[in-house]
Design goal:
The structure holds 2 protein chains of 2 kinds. Chain A has 8 helices and 10 strands. By secondary structure, chain A is of the alpha/beta class. In chain A, the strands form 2 sheets. Chain A has a 6-stranded mixed β-sheet with strand order 6-7-8-3-9-10, with helices on both faces. In chain A, strands 2-1-4-5 form a 4-stranded antiparallel β-sheet, covered by helices on one side. In chain B, the strands form 3 sheets. Chain B has a 6-stranded mixed β-barrel with strand order 2-3-8-5-7-6. Chain B has a 6-stranded mixed beta barrel with strand order 12-16-21-18-20-19. The chains are: A alpha/beta, B alpha+beta.
């Protein structure tokens, strides 16, 4: 499903050069739940952004569903994201001028979908427990509520891959738990491939696999027994 | 597409959230659209009215403009039309002097004599108090314009003296239907009946008496046929029907409309610049939203759609508000022009002009937002992770691509504006419109670039100055200057847009004033400044005597004998067949002949010799170099004229050139004096005298020769001055809109930095700064912006005025510092006012409110 080969990311600001990712290799089969861990500044967010095609790699390849994405032009990437990838940011990133429901519906409208969109948006909001906050704007929602809207939005187009960058980082434990439950149940129900960046040991323990980064390199790739057996 | 509705929603909600900022942008566009719609609306309303009342403008169906008293044969032709059912009447217009018992000096007026029984065939003469023409005008009464009553200190019921005869003032004339085509008003109006005119001795054989024969044509005679027949009978005169007359007026109207439209376009462009800067700032703020949308699958084109919609909304709102402003401007025009033309275009704004204004506004807005809209493409979704990242060094390849994009949008803007200009110029000739359009666009572009460059340099110099200056600047001033460099301050575009407005308004003012000072600087020494018109043969010796006794005389008076004639043939070839360089030349117009013994002062002989002892029985003529070229005349050419039915022949013996600074009239044919003997001769006098002696001469001349008109150059200059002022006022009025748009942009950008300013004010306040101190800081910022913009605009205006004066009027621009200083000060004040308008709310903020809202 996800295949990362020799991925590097270098940033050259002119005055100095930063090697953020120094050659990353791993592959994630369909339906796997992977947690990415590592200390702050180790390059987790950068990696996730690259996998989602939000940023351009310096070298290496990223294959999603049999398609190499590092050389794709911006608009092709956007379409690909719209169809295959759901992304959840640490800081929610909702469009402030759209209501909760409109935010959830947006990816569907962007791909020009016609069909059950509005109904599904309502249902998703229902599932994340926000059916009564449908018409509220992001500023009128709490952090946990915003993150749940962001989750609903990420699931809107039934993505094959869901990438989440510390989705519970800004939430208290109760809310964090709620979000995690949602992720797990969606992973279980729809067989979505789940890649989660987190600092939270407790959260990572639910994952089938934990990849640990340090200084732009993979230093550990741990898998649960039963999965290794498979 | 589904997304369109969402795009519209986002566009609308974002605009509402930034309403404060966008309102100014809308107003900036509205100002430009308003002046454009106003100009075009007025012109279209006027054109509609002209078309509807075309016959009224001429007061007839056909008019024959005569330059001399018609011959009996010609009158017979007119009479024959009358027998076929047409109606005709004669209107005589001439200049004269009138006096009253109450005023010391006689006044110079234009007399119009009509037949109250039939004139006008269409429309009506309007009086105050309202009355009919037939009831007002008899052989003994007159109606005059209001300004004459003041000039002569008389009222209704009093008498004035015209051409040596008394007339009782029966009413004030307030409107004549054919005023617009009888030319600009020269002096107050005196309306007489034809009977009244006959009592005076103003019109005599040979005297200069422009007349019109007006005809009303019955349906039984086709108009073109009648015009044709009249043209045959009046070969030297102007025959035109009401449609042509209307065309002539319309043509000048079109010209004025194109010109004023272009000036309005400048205001619109300044507004466009404002939209572009506001949009640029807005998109910068919306980077996050854009990146989020891209990261959840939005293509660039979808994001662009949102902001195109937003731009269109702004443009449309500006356009609609502009149309409202425009209809106000349209109704102002008649009031502005009232003194010169009695135009009543009280027609509401036509949908066509409203639409034109809106389209022009939308187009300009879109064109100028092109660069910021294109930059949406460059926003990467990764922005969400990292702020302000210059993602790796931009390679030359990328920079080249960016440069190409900028060049392309620049080109599109230029081409688009050029097309807009050409469209607004319109008119019959596409080539001419293209030419003017490209000159306009080129000039505007050059000034914009120049201003932007100057703004860039000045801002850097100012910063450098503050950094290295050894003086201790007041801290408010330092803070104010620092504010110019705050992120999002847009100082450069403010300076450019405000500067361009200042430049245009000031250029118009400077050119107008240099032109007027050139005119009023007075006649150069040696040139005549008083002219006497319509002197008869028997008056001539007495006039010469009277003139020689006048005090203040600076030169021997000249008396020029003139005989009007028609040219018949050259070297035996009739004028109808005469060709110059293979092309037929119909020079069969009326010709004024004059005679002289000695070569008049101010003329030089370029070929041949001036006669010393004319031979009896042989007549000689000296022709001007201009007419010699036009008619291919040379020494030895034999010319034949017909004057008052008598043939007149002369041989060219010399070609002369006139020094235009010393002789004002063009004298094309000077004959030996004996040649004109026995013909009805009218003399023109030209005198050079001290300006304060002119009134005395006018009085004396009027007492002794009431039919002689004494023209004071100063009076004519005054008229010219009035017309120039009027025209300049209209142009300035329209170009002021550009300044208004510029000031609006300043306000809009101040509103755009509102949040930053609020925080700053709050921090200042928590640190204990008083309100007065903050006011000073902000004022320093706005005043500096205004001063610099005023300075730049003034410098460019001086440069422009120099070019315009040299090219158009061939006169050197004379520098005078006062108007420029005033312009700079005014710009600074306008800038301060605009800045405060956008930020006074900020001052009232309570510190806690803002800090809690963080
Ligand atoms: N534009 C940039 N310029 C310079 N350095 C950068 C830039 N973007 C990221 N970095 C550096 O790259 C490293 C990796 O960043 P990244 O955001 O991927 O870390 P992270 O593992 O997500 O950290 P955290 O757990 O704190 O979110 C950091 O040291 C960061 O400072
Ligand atoms: Mg991170």
């Amino acid at each position: 499903m996800i295949d990362v080969r020799g991925l590097t990311k270098v940033i050259d600001t002119g005055t100095h050069r930063v090697d953020i990712l120094k050659g990353i290799d791993f592959s994630v089969p369909k339906g796997q739940f992977v947690a990415i861990m590592g200390s702050s500044g180790s390059g987790k967010s950068t990696l996730l952004g690259l996998v989602a095609g939000l940023d351009s790699a310096s070298s290496g390849e990223i294959w999603l569903d049999g398609e190499e994405i590092t050389k794709l032009p911006e608009d092709k990437l956007a379409v690909l994201r719209g169809r295959k990838i759901g992304f959840v940011f640490q800081s929610y990133q909702l469009i402030p001028t759209l209501t909760a429901e409109e935010n959830v519906l947006l990816p569907y409208e962007l791909v020009g979908g016609n069909g059950d969109g509005p109904a599904r948006a309502k249902q998703l909001l229902d599932e994340v427990g926000l059916s009564d906050r449908r018409d509220h704007y992001p500023v009128q929602l709490s952090g946990g509520e915003q993150q749940r809207v962001a989750l609903a939005r990420a699931f809107m187009v039934r993505p094959a891959i869901l990438l989440a960058d510390e989705p519970t980082g800004n939430l208290d434990s109760a809310n964090g738990r709620h979000v995690l439950d949602l992720l797990l149940s969606l992973n279980a129900q729809q067989g979505t491939t789940l890649v989660l960046v987190t600092h939270d040991q407790q959260l990572a323990s639910h994952a089938a696999r934990i990849i640990t980064l340090q200084d732009g390199r993979v230093i550990e790739d741990w898998m649960k027994r039963e999965d290794v057996m498979k | 597409m589904k997304f369109n509705r969402t795009a519209l929603k986002i566009a609308w909600r974002e605009s509402r959230a930034s309403a404060g900022k966008f309102l100014f942008v809308i107003f900036a566009v509205a100002v430009g659209v308003g002046s454009l719609t106003g100009v075009r609306g007025f012109s279209q309303a006027l054109a509609t009215m002209l078309l509807r009342e075309a016959r009224t403008l001429m007061a007839a169906d056909v008019s024959v403009r005569l330059l001399a008293v018609p011959t009996p044969e010609q009158l017979k032709v007119v009479a024959s039309f009358d027998q076929r059912g047409a109606q005709s009447t004669r209107v005589t217009e001439t200049l004269s002097m009138v006096s009253s018992r109450n005023a010391e000096n006689p006044a110079f007026v234009s007399v119009k004599a009509v037949d109250p029984a039939v004139y006008p065939f269409y429309g009506a003469v309007k009086f105050d108090p309202p009355a009919s023409l037939a009831a007002t005008l008899t052989g003994e009464t007159t109606a005059v314009s209001g300004d004459l009553l003041i000039r002569l200190k008389v009222g209704i019921g009093d008498s004035i003296r015209v051409g040596g005869v008394d007339f009782k003032i029966a009413a004030i004339v307030t409107g004549e239907p054919d005023r617009l085509i009888s030319g600009p008003a020269v002096g107050p109006r005196v309306l007489l009946s034809r009977e009244g005119l006959a009592r005076t001795e103003l019109i005599r054989l040979g005297s200069r008496a422009p007349q019109r024969i007006l005809l009303k044509v019955p349906a039984s005679i086709p108009l073109p046929q009648m015009v044709e027949e009249l043209k045959k009978s009046f070969p030297d005169d102007q025959v035109s029907d009401y449609k042509q007359a209307n065309q002539n007026v319309t043509r000048s109207l079109d010209f004025a409309t194109s010109f004023l439209s272009l000036i309005s376009l400048i205001a619109l462009i300044v507004g466009g610049v404002g939209v572009a800067t506001a949009m640029h700032a807005h998109l910068k703020q919306k980077m996050d939203s854009i990146a989020i949308m891209k990261s959840i699958g939005a293509r660039s084109s979808q994001v662009v759609r949102i902001y195109v919609i937003q731009t269109l909304m702004l443009g449309l709102a500006g356009g609609i508000l502009g149309v409202v402003i425009g209809s106000g401007v349209q109704h102002l025009f008649p009031a502005i022009l009232q003194k010169y033309f009695q135009v009543k275009a009280d027609i509401p704004l036509l949908p066509a002009s409203a639409l034109q204004g809106i389209v022009a506004g939308l187009l300009t807005t879109l064109l100028f937002t092109l660069p910021p809209l294109l930059s949406i493409q460059k926003i990467k979704p990764g922005v969400i992770f990292r702020r302000d990242m210059p993602d790796a060094k931009t390679g030359w390849r990328e920079r080249l691509r960016d440069g190409r994009g900028a060049a392309l949008s620049g080109l599109l803007i230029v081409v688009g504006l050029g097309a807009l200009a050409v469209w607004l110029i319109g008119g019959a000739s596409r080539e001419e419109a293209l030419r003017i359009g490209s000159i306009f666009t080129g000039g505007l572009l050059a000034s914009l670039l120049l201003l932007a460059g100057a703004a860039w340099i000045l801002l850097r110099l100012l910063r450098l100055f503050v950094a290295v200056t050894p003086w201790k600047l007041p801290s408010t001033l330092r803070h104010g200057i620092a504010n110019l460099y705050r992120p999002g301050s847009q100082a450069e575009s403010i300076l450019t847009s405000l500067g361009i407005g200042v430049m245009f308004t000031l250029t118009v003012y400077l050119v107008q004033h240099s032109m007027l000072s050139e005119i009023t600087a007075g006649a150069p020494p040696g040139m005549s400044n008083v002219f006497l018109l319509d002197i008869t043969e028997e008056q001539r010796p007495r006039i010469a005597e009277m003139l020689s006794k006048q005090p203040g005389l600076e030169k021997t008076p000249e008396l020029l004998a003139t005989v009007s004639s028609r040219m018949v043939s050259i070297d035996g070839v009739p004028m109808e067949n005469y060709q110059v360089n293979g092309k037929p030349r119909r020079f069969a117009g009326r010709r004024i002949l004059t005679s002289a013994d000695a070569l008049p002062v101010g003329m030089t002989i370029t070929q041949g010799t001036w006669w010393k002892h004319p031979k009896a029985g042989e007549d000689w003529v000296s022709v001007s170099d201009w007419i010699a070229r036009a008619l291919n005349l040379h020494i030895g050419s034999k010319i034949e004229w017909l004057a008052f039915g008598k043939p007149l022949r002369a041989t060219v013996t010399s070609i002369h050139r006139i020094d235009p600074h010393r002789i004002s009239s063009r004298i094309d044919f000077i004959l030996t004096p004996q040649a004109l003997q026995g013909l009805p001769t009218v003399y023109y006098g030209a005198v050079r005298m001290k300006p304060d002696s002119v009134a005395a001469l006018q009085r004396t001349a009027y007492e002794q020769f009431p039919t002689v008109t004494v023209l004071n150059m100063a009076d004519i200059i005054e008229r010219v001055q009035e017309v120039v002022n009027q025209v300049a006022f209209v142009i300035r009025f329209i170009s002021l809109f550009a300044i208004l748009a510029g000031a609006t942009i300043l306000a809009s950008s101040v509103a755009g930095t509102r949040f930053r300013r609020v925080r700053e004010v709050v921090i200042f306040k928590t640190l204990g700064a008083t309100r007065g101190r903050i006011v000073k800081i902000f004022s320093a910022e706005f005043l500096i912006l205004g001063t610099v913009a005023g300075l730049m605009g003034s410098l460019l205006a001086i440069a422009f005025s120099m070019v315009v004066m040299k090219q158009l009027i061939k006169v050197d621009y004379r520098f005078s510092p006062l108007p420029i200083l005033i312009a700079i000060a005014l710009t600074a004040l306008i800038a301060a006012a605009a800045g405060w308008l956008a930020s006074f709310r900020i001052l009232g903020q309570k510190p806690l409110e803002v800090l809690r809202g963080e």
